[in-house]
């Protein structure tokens, strides 16, 4: 018998071959780990720690009566955690200012809170009073405030530095500018002062009010006003009786008109900055020197 011819193998499609390969594969499937969500840590402000130290309290608005009694009974502080107002009372024999924390049945010996000459010093041993005044009393920052020694020191340093700056500026200032500044302070009396008297008063003014001194020293109009005043006093320039017109004293030629409701010498100082005024100013300075 004739052998039967072998049937040709059926072609396997690409999709079927992929299934067969997947079944025969000995490669173990890779296990993917589900990524864990990152925990974001939020920075939480830590509560300010209470420092045990001596404290000083001062009445506000520069008040300094001989004695001032702050209310120490029947005042309330709203407790946000508890959600209601808590009564405060300063007593001699309790360890807390909160009435609801007083031991039941205990005596409550009320103590006065007295400012003397606008100030109250509380030593570190009196923690109940310090916490009442610094943390809970409703009149804090309204009728009184706790003195911050750091802020006081910073302000004092700033004032000392400002005073030094003003004194150094006064020490090196020329006579004309010294006269201009002191004329603001002393008026026409400056014209009769000697150079030593002028220097002394200038240094005293810089020490007494350094901020105003430096402000005047950096103000160009101060010097210009002084030149105008000196020129008037020496008969170089004349000011009309109604204080509305400046003129040359020698020939009466008009220089400028003072605007309504403006100081005459301030107006003259402003006019000196104009093109015409600068020429007149140069001429006046030569005559003064």
Please give a structural write-up.
- With 289 residues, the chain is α+β, with helices and mostly antiparallel strands.
- Among the domains are: 93 residues, no CATH class; 71 residues, Rec A Protein, domain 2 (2-Layer Sandwich), CATH 3.30.250.
- It contains 9 helices and 10 strands.
- Strands 6-1-7 form a 3-stranded antiparallel sheet, covered by helices on one side.
- Strand 3 and strand 4 form a beta hairpin.
- It is elongated, with a radius of gyration of 43 Å.
- About 8% of the residues have low confidence.
Task: For the structure shown, list the relevant keywords.
three-stranded antiparallel beta sheet; 289 residues; 9 helices; 40% helix
Helix content: 25-40%
The rounded Rg comes to: 43 Å
| Low-confidence regions | 25-32, 34-47
Total number of β-strand segments? 10
Strand adjacency order, main sheet? 6-1-7
Structural class: alpha+beta
What order do the helices and strands come in, and which of them pair?
Elements: H1 14-24, E1 55-59, E2 67-70, E3 73-79, E4 84-89, E5 113-116, E6 119-122, H2 127-136, E7 144-146, H3 149-171, H4 175-186, H5 195-208, H6 210-217, H7 220-233, E8 237-239, E9 245-248, E10 254-257, H8 264-272, H9 275-288
Helix pairs in contact: 3-5, 3-6, 4-5, 4-7, 5-6, 7-8, 7-9
Care to give the gist of this entry?
With about 290 residues, the chain is an alpha+beta fold.
């Amino acid at each position: 018998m004739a052998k039967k011819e072998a049937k040709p193998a059926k072609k396997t499609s690409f999709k079927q071959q992929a299934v067969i390969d997947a079944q025969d594969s000995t490669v173990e499937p890779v296990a993917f780990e589900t990524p864990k969500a990152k925990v974001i840590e939020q920075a939480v402000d830590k509560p300010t720690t209470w420092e045990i130290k001596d404290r000083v309290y001062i009445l506000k608005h520069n008040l300094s009566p001989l004695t001032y009694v702050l209310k120490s009974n029947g005042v309330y502080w709203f407790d946000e955690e508890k959600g209601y107002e808590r009564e405060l009372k300063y007593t001699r024999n309790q360890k807390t200012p909160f009435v609801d924390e007083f031991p039941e049945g205990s005596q409550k010996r009320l103590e006065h809170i007295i400012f003397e000459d606008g100030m109250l010093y509380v030593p570190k041993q009196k923690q109940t009073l310090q916490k009442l005044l610094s943390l809970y009393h409703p009149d804090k920052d309204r009728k009184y405030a706790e003195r911050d020694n750091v802020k006081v020191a910073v302000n004092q340093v700033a004032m000392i530095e400002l005073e030094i700056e003003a004194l150094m500026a006064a020490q090196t200032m020329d006579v004309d500018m010294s006269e201009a500044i002191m004329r603001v302070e002393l008026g026409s009396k400056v014209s009769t002062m000697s150079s030593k008297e002028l220097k002394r008063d200038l240094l005293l003014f810089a020490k007494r009010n350094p901020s105003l001194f430096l402000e005047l020293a950096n103000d160009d109009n101060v010097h210009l006003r002084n030149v105008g005043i000196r020129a008037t006093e020496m008969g170089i320039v004349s000011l009309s009786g109604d204080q509305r017109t400046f003129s040359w004293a020698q020939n009466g030629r008009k220089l400028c008109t003072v605007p309504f409701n403006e100081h005459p010498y301030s107006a003259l100082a402003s006019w000196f900055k104009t093109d015409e005024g600068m020429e007149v100013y140069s001429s006046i300075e030569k005559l003064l020197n």
